[in-house]
């Protein structure tokens, strides 16, 4: 029986198992022996495991979450549709009472808890296992893989923590998900400073895993970061410590428990991620990529510089999606027909005077035009005389953002959102080629800020926490200095205000690099030359995700998928009907694995 070991058993592995089952009738004859190695539960993995606070939620609506391929997915294997989270019938699943109650109350536009998503992922995983060829066996090892040995011509040995003998495999697939990283020199110095002065420092971490009990009630704590990790942090330190929200005259108020610290929060932008939209498109359905097409750029020789060759095309693609929705969904707010605007738009560079003139001619209200620089840095250039004045300003800004993302009059934002998803997939293809240069992380940050923010009610809660004094906003370009036995913090938004704090929290996920990884398996592979680092990522073949060794040679028996690889596709699940890159990649990897196993079986029979 052919043996496949998956290192990592989260939703990405579940998707690969489903693709193995879907493609096996065409490519492989016989059962498989599958080993799943992961200290976290198979199916849900680390991020989506059931055992976390029920207060933590997804930032996607139930109707926008699926694990199934659909007609939009361009792949060689068969498409096997299935229910989105919103369409899922959980009657056959073994669920606890709280999850069942939430599912009963959940609608298509609800933002479910991570425990609900965990249940959906576990159900999909079980279904994927059942789809494997008849006679297949699946073994789960709730531990870590620490080493893998074996040349491309021989079977691989996967060594597990706490086990003397290795698991012997024909193929190993690394689906490690989001990984921890060693402390950077900056964070190590902050940790040492905190220890020396009796302070508290929480480095970048997955919020559900961080020990927040070290943050005492009433302490002044600086928080760097205003993305999703910050939202989770606030949830756990406020409502998670017994505080409650109450609505009076349609205004949300926070009633403290007295156990909360005082959080002084800031970031580079100084504002939280944009709220998720709560409406659907009103105009024509989105088109596929038109201006930013990875294959067009890959057809040219040499390196592809992000700022020089890529960003202008992304901006034009995203703006096209925005204006398509504005023109077709809100024709009373424009002066030209969509056909005329689109025709003239196609011939212009995004950053050109002619493009600005076309926008001014066709879109009379400046607020209806798309300005990426203003979107990226919305409070740049603003300075306030007092912290209280800035609090009032930023609360108004957040309230306006929630109102905009809840009002379908602004559905053009959703048009831009859909185009950004398309652009992300195209950019992944460029990154996988190994020819993309100059992308320093700005793009991923902007993408997350614009399209991957929290549900609107989370920002409403943030406003209530701000009014209650539990959260205070620092502003843009926040700085922190370890001085005088405390952490000092301030920003360019309120230049005269300096906060003295006894705690510092880095509210962001660890930035994983291969050279700085804390994953024992990758450390071992890097030391032995079995893996190559490229821009901090594990280098893999752009076609089938085979692992490249230090010389750049693909290992015939090793595959790697996930955000830590050069062929990264961030999410293991997707919004339906978006031709998700991870689904396409899963299919390609599964087919490559099956084709290899089939060829090896033939060779063994001949021998």
Automatic annotation (TrEMBL):
It holds the Pfam family NAD_binding_9. InterPro entries: FAD/NAD-bd_sf, HpyO/CreE_NAD-binding, L-asp_N-monooxygenase_NS-form. Residues 5-178 form the FAD-dependent urate hydroxylase HpyO/Asp monooxygenase CreE-like FAD/NAD(P)-binding domain. This is FAD/NAD(P)-binding protein.
């Amino acid at each position: 029986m052919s043996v496949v070991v998956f290192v990592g058993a989260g939703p990405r592995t579940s998707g690969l198992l489903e693709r193995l089952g879907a493609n096996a009738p065409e490519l492989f004859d016989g059962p498989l022996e599958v080993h799943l190695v992961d200290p976290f539960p198979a199916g849900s993995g680390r991020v989506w495991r059931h055992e976390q606070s029920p207060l933590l939620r997804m930032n996607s609506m139930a109707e926008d979450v699926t694990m199934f391929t659909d007609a939009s997915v361009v792949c060689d294997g068969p498409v096997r549709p299935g229910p989105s989270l919103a369409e899922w019938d959980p009657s056959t699943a073994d669920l606890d009472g709280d999850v069942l109650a939430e599912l009963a109350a959940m609608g298509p536009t609800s933002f479910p808890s991570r425990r609900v998503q965990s249940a959906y992922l576990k159900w999909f995983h079980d279904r994927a296992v059942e789809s494997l060829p008849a006679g297949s066996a699946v073994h789960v090892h709730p531990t870590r893989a620490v080493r893998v040995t074996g040349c491309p011509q021989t079977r691989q040995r996967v060594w597990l923590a706490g086990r003397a003998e290795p698991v012997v495999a024909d193929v190993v697939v690394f689906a490690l998900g989001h990984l921890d990283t060693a402390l950077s020199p900056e964070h190590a110095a902050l940790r040492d400073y905190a220890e020396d002065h009796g302070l508290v420092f929480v480095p970048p971490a997955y919020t559900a895993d961080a020990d927040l009990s070290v943050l005492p009630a009433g302490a002044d704590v600086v928080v760097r970061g205003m993305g999703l990790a910050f939202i989770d942090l606030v949830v756990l330190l406020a409502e998670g410590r017994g505080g409650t929200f109450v609505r009076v005259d349609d205004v949300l108020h926070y009633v403290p428990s007295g156990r909360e610290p005082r959080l002084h929060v800031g970031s580079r932008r100084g504002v939280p991620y944009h709220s998720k939209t709560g409406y659907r498109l009103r105009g024509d359905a989105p088109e596929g990529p038109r201006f930013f097409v990875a294959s067009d750029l890959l057809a040219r020789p040499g390196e592809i510089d992000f700022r020089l060759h890529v960003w202008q095309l992304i901006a034009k693609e995203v703006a096209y999606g925005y204006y398509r929705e504005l023109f077709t969904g809100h024709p009373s707010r424009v002066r030209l027909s969509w056909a005329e605007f689109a025709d003239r738009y196609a011939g212009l560079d995004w950053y050109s005077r002619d493009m600005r003139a076309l926008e001014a001619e066709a879109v009379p209200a400046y607020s209806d035009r798309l300005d990426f620089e203003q979107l990226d840095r919305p409070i740049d250039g603003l300075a306030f005389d007092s912290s209280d004045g800035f609090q009032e300003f930023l609360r108004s800004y957040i309230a306006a953002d929630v109102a905009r993302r809840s009002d379908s009059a602004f559905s053009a934002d959703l048009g831009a959102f859909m185009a950004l998803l398309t652009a992300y997939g195209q950019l992944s293809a460029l990154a996988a080629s190994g020819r993309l240069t100059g992308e320093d992380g700005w793009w991923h940050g902007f993408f997350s800020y614009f399209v991957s923010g929290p549900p609107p009610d989370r920002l409403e809660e943030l406003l209530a926490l701000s009014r209650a004094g539990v959260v205070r906003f620092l502003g843009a370009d926040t700085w922190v200095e370890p001085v005088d036995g405390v952490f000092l913090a301030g920003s360019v938004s309120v230049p005269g205000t300096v906060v003295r704090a006894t705690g510092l929290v880095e509210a962001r996920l660890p930035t994983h690099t291969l050279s700085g990884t804390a994953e024992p398996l990758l450390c071992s592979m890097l030391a032995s030359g079995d893996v190559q680092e490229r821009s901090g990522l594990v280098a893999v073949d752009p076609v089938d995700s085979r692992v490249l060794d230090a010389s750049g040679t693909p290992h015939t028996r090793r595959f790697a998928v996930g955000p830590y690889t050069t062929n990264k596709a961030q999410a293991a699940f997707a919004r339906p009907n978006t031709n998700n890159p991870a689904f396409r990649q899963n299919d390609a990897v599964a087919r490559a694995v099956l084709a290899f196993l089939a060829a090896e079986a033939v060779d063994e029979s001949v021998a």
